Input
Amino acid sequence: MRISWRIAFAILNILEAAVARRFYVTTGQSDESVAAALSALGRDTLRQPGTLPFPDLPAGTDTLPGIEHIVFLELENHSFDNIFGMLGRGDGLTRDSYGKVLNSNAYANGSIQHAFPMPNTCQLPQRPSQEWLASHNAYDNGTNAGFVRTQISPTIPESVGGVAMGYFTSDHLPFTYSLAEEFPIGDRFFCSVMSQTWPNRRYLIAATSRGLTDDNSNLTAGYTPTGTIFNELDKHNISWTNYAPDCCWTTISGNTPDFYGANDYDTEVRNHKDINQFMIDALEGNLPAFSFLDPNYNNQSQENPQNVVIGEALLASVVDAIGKSPLWHKTLFILNYDEHGGYYDHVPPPPALMPDDIPPTVLPGEYQYDGFARFGFRVPVVVVSPYAKPGKYVSHVVYDHTSVLATLQRKWNLPAFTYRDANANDMLDFLDLEALERQKPTFGTMPPLAAPGNTTEALACSVTGPGVIPPPGTVSSPRA
Output
């Protein structure tokens, strides 16, 4: 029996409407908001939680056999413009024909804080802030004009907010810039929620924060009924290791699996090694299928007030070990940051799909704003692999932390946890898939890279301090 195209089209519309109604009933997000989020992702259909990337294949099927080892490191608290704004590739800071940076933000009194290079590699201890309220104030209804006037404590001088307009350069972070000059970067990688570390790392491992919007909850009570990526890897006998020091939080070990501790604590104990062991395992060709690296959050994560070159030295050690590993030719390394840390970025975060029906839990007197229907600010991302796209490639695809999940799920055909990761773009745009299929590397060996910036001179500010921030001469009078 032949069905006319009109009938087929009508059936398709009915099915799409049914999916939209199901999403609204499940999450409460309107059809218009869903359509805007899908448009930002470059999608026109909505995939459901629990479904597989390849429905015709069994869960656990390896669909990228040329990549046998995925390594992931997430540093902390820097926006794209703050780290890569001066890279000269991607959508960075705006410069005039003479190279002068033109980006600025106003104080509450109308004075203008102009963007400036940080005086050294150290940071202020008390600002900038990336808390839920501060981040939404910085977003300022899509203008990104509220960074320097974002203050949530009357005891802190308003001028301290000017640090948000500071940025780092290749003089501060020579290795990071060298890595990003060789390998592909993305300039539309947004953090998952406009807030702090804990909710963003929950999205990273489970595609939802379960309502969490701050860093002030009891992590050991964290549980998600849909599980985490570590649970799925265990379920399908896919090897993984959390390389992390047990040093850094007061209540628990501080490793990322602890952000859903009730799900992951026992398995993390069984799959844990010290961060320094990663370098040894890589050089000996003894890596698991998935390596999740947690830095020492006291001094290696690059969060303020840390000296950022200490974290860069860790990054350099990781990349050096991967490049020298006998596993180089079948490894994928992803570097990103958990959130913007309060530092300025000029690209307004686009709308996002709500992962589930759990609303934001906010502090007294705060608002829910767009809830979880908007991404947070952009963060840096670099992908390193023998099959990475060459030629200083920049991916303009919209990503968030659940794109890391989507990449792992595509690799091993694992089910999605929520609407967010089910519809996230995976990160294969960074790879030359034809080269991967032919097993003809685009990077036969790790290219020469600059030494990290942890020189005696750069480390001196850890004792002498970050200098005057904002520097003299970077503030102008209110505009007429």
